[in-house]
Amino acid sequence: MRRITCLAQSILAAVASILAAIATPAAAQQVITYEVVTEEIVSETGSDRFVASGQAVLPKGIARFGPFRVLDTGRAALVDVTDERSPAAFTAMLAAYPALATLEMIECSGTMDDGANLRLGRMIRAKGIATHVPKGGSVRSGGVELFLAGARRMADPGAEFAVHAWEDEDGKEPGDFAADAPVNRAYLDYYREMGMSAIEARAFYDMTNSVANAEAKWLNAAQMGQWVRLDSAKVASSPALDSARTLR
Questions:
Q1: Inter-axis angle of helices 114-126 and 86-96, nearest 10
Q2: 181: which residues sit within 8 A by CB, 6+ positions away?
């Protein structure tokens, strides 16, 4: 099964704030160039997919591994959709840069392979890597599972999240299966591994599934903090993003 959300909006205006949010001390600063990437996701036969594109200014960094960009020896950024190749890309990145400690989540639209995405999340947690969504960062759909994987989870004011139900290749969603079916248990078990209690895991999963796959529930950092324990205190309360918006 695969999950993707595409945000048809420009993030160009947020570049300055993102750079400021993830800036390193002057003594450790490196020159990082940026590139404009157009994201396009094409629907495939047998599943309810769509074509959408949007421009985001993304860090080119000093090295590139699949959807990851290495910003410096201690930080990498996730800037693209994940797929079945992403766990291998993550392994290669850590082999080349073993001191990476923080994953900056800048433009995370989702995943093309939920199974691989959950494996990647477990790898992030096993390595003790922190996840951070800076101001202007957007974490959507399957990207949220990767945010949860952080050994420390941080979200700045101005970060946004979008959740919705998954949909498999046959067009079925979580409610089409028994609550304790293996396909649903996979997510509940994952959330437990990421530190949630059984009650928290069920509540979070039910919240994400309260919105159909074709739509999304938007949350800001403070609202995400009502569902997930955050290690950052820098969240500002605002209901502006908490709405169901179509993804088409």
A1: 20
A2: none
Within 10 Å of residue 110's Cβ, how many Cβ atoms? 27
Q: What's the angle, vertex CA 137, arms to CA 241 and CA 151, rounded to 5?
A: 105
pLDDT by position in tens, the chain (length 248): 656 554 434 333 444 445 444 554 444 444 444 443 434 333 332 222 222 334 556 888 999 999 999 999 999 999 999 999 999 999 999 999 999 999 999 999 999 999 999 999 999 999 999 999 999 999 999 999 999 999 999 999 999 999 999 999 899 999 999 999 999 999 999 999 999 999 999 999 999 999 999 999 999 999 999 999 999 644 444 445 444 444 43
Q: How does DSSP assign 91-148, residue by residue? A: HHHHHH-TT--EEEESEE-EES-HHHHHHHHHHHHHTT-EEEE-TT-EEETTHHHHHH
Burial of 126 (0-12, 13-18, 19+ CB in 10 A): exposed
- Tell me how far CA of residue 113 lies from CA of 46, 84, 230, in angstroms: 15, 6, 26
From residue 150, alpha-carbon distances to 60, 135, 154 in Å are 23, 18, 9
CATH number of 3-246: 3.90.226.10
Residue 144, by phi and psi: left (phi above 0), alpha (psi -120 to 50) or beta?
alpha
The answer to whether the CB of 141 falls within 8 A of the CB of 111 is: yes
Domain boundaries, the chain: 3-246
